[in-house]
Amino acid sequence: MATGTGDVALALAAHPAVGRVVAVDPSPLMLAGARVKAAAAATTTVDTVAPPPVSFVQGTAEGLPYADGEFAVATVAFGVRNFGDRSAGLAQLARVLRPGGTLGVLEVSPPGPGLGGAAARAFVSLLVPAVGGGWGWRARWGRQPPMIGRRGGGATAAAPLPRGGRQAPPSTGIWQRV
């Protein structure tokens, strides 16, 4: 979920134990970029066995069009913060995971206090938008860089999903302050 330009999906597809990769993102522009990367990766593969193809699908976490328990693994890299409804998105990810499946979530946490935190906040609020705007992020991807204008609550660690992977806890309960 939130595949963006496909980096995680393509890395997973290159793993020998992976048989099928479905990469979902709401942005058609991000998916177009992912397809270009996938095509380039397919032409530069030097392995004797090509990685499985990646299916790129436009969609949201809150409305995944897959059967209950269809996937052994689901990943979200820097995307939970962009879900329109975190609880619904996490519940959908849990629903499509088979019992005992794995949900991997990669996110960043807001900068801490002190001089280092102030420098990081200045970097994110001033430099990133300037550079992103200069590179035409919004025109290219149809939205602003995902971190801009978002707020969170400190360093976090994910709690395990409930047994069987069928229900996600409320979004306020899945994250624990470290």
UniProtKB/TrEMBL annotation:
Can you tell me where the transmembrane regions are? none
Q: Which PROSITE patterns match?
A: SAM_MT_UBIE, UBIE_2
Biological process (GO), any one = ketone biosynthetic process
What's this protein's name? Methyltransferase domain-containing protein
Q: Which UniProt keywords apply?
A: Methyltransferase, S-adenosyl-L-methionine, Transferase
Q: What is the lineage of its organism?
A: Eukaryota, Rhodophyta, Bangiophyceae, Bangiales, Bangiaceae
UniProt xrefs under SUPFAM superfamilies? S-adenosyl-L-methionine-dependent methyltransferases
Region Disordered: what ranges? 150-178
Q: Where is the composition biased (Low complexity)?
A: 156-166
* A family per Pfam: Ubie_methyltran
| Molecular function GO labels | methyltransferase activity
Q: Which InterPro entries match?
A: SAM-dependent_MTases_sf (IPR029063), UbiE/COQ5_MeTrFase (IPR004033), UbiE/COQ5_MeTrFase_CS (IPR023576)
- Skewed-composition ranges (Polar residues): 169-178
